[in-house]
Specification:
Organism (chain B): [Myrmecia] bisecta
Distance between the termini of chain A: 35 Å
CATH topology of the largest domain in chain B: Non-ribosomal Peptide Synthetase Peptidyl Carrier Protein, Chain A
Largest sheet of chain B: none
Helix content of chain B: 40-55%
CATH class of the largest domain in chain B: Mainly Alpha
Number of helices of chain B: 5
GO molecular function, one term (chain B): acyl binding
Oligomer: heterodimer
Subunit structure (chain B): Complex I is composed of at least 49 different subunits.
Radius of gyration of chain A: 15 Å
Structural class of chain B: mainly alpha
Subcellular location (chain B): Mitochondrion
Largest sheet of chain A: none
Pathway (chain B): Lipid metabolism; fatty acid biosynthesis
Distance between the termini of chain B: 21 Å
């Protein structure tokens, strides 16, 4: 990413950012403890794919669909939160 | 140019009777720009990835404060919480600096 100039945001990038905003909105409605966990989980998922090539539309669209499904699940009344577990190094 | 709460301007002009004033009371009033500036800056300074000493009323989130686009989304959401407004996606996309945020919130009739 070039430094000193804001890169132009593509349509897909904008969709991803709007999705991130929806996640934060959803997290706000959860109870405080769950809210923190949802935010942590979401940010970790975004960070996990930070290095994905911006031209890898297939993967990005796949991740966006996957995320949207997870978000819908989280918004359903039976689900109250999500927790991040670090797998023990083996 | 700046818009302040209607009653202040009118008092300054010597208009006394509130009955003559067609204010924005029904929709809410505009906040004082100085107040908005202070609150916007304090929200940004309290963001854990920001160096508070770099924050000025014109700091660009990404170019000056070193935030990325996800952090920018988080900061804009923090403004929503501070000012009790909901910023639609199309507007939020255009808030890229503290000055953008100050202008938007100072001209938002529902900002508290």
């Amino acid at each position: 990413m070039p430094v000193g100039r804001t890169p132009r945001v593509s349509g897909l990038q904008r969709q991803v950012l709007h999705f991130y905003r929806n996640v934060i909105r959803t997290a706000r409605e959860a109870r405080p403890a769950e809210s923190q966990q949802i935010l942590q989980f979401a940010r970790a998922e975004f960070e996990r794919y930070r290095e994905v090539d911006r031209k890898n539309y297939q993967l990005i669209e796949h991740l966006l669909r996957k995320g949207t499904k997870q978000l819908n699940l989280l918004q359903s009344t039976e689900v109250i939160g999500v927790q991040l577990h670090r797998a023990a190094a083996s | 140019m700046r818009l302040t709460a209607g009653s202040n301007c009118l008092q300054a002009l010597g208009v006394q009777s509130a009955g003559l004033v067609r204010g924005f009371a029904e929709q809410g009033t505009f906040l004082d720009k100085k107040d908005v500036t202070d609150r916007v800056l304090s929200v940004v300074k309290n963001f854990d990835k920001v160096d508070p000493s770099k924050v000025t009323p014109t700091s660009h989130f990404q170019n000056d404060l070193g935030l990325d686009s996800l952090d920018t989304v988080e900061v804009v959401m923090a403004f929503e919480e501070e000012f009790a407004v909901e910023i639609p996606d199309s507007e939020a996309d255009r808030i890229l600096s503290t000055s953008d945020a100050i202008d938007y919130l100072a001209s938002h009739p529902m900002a508290k």
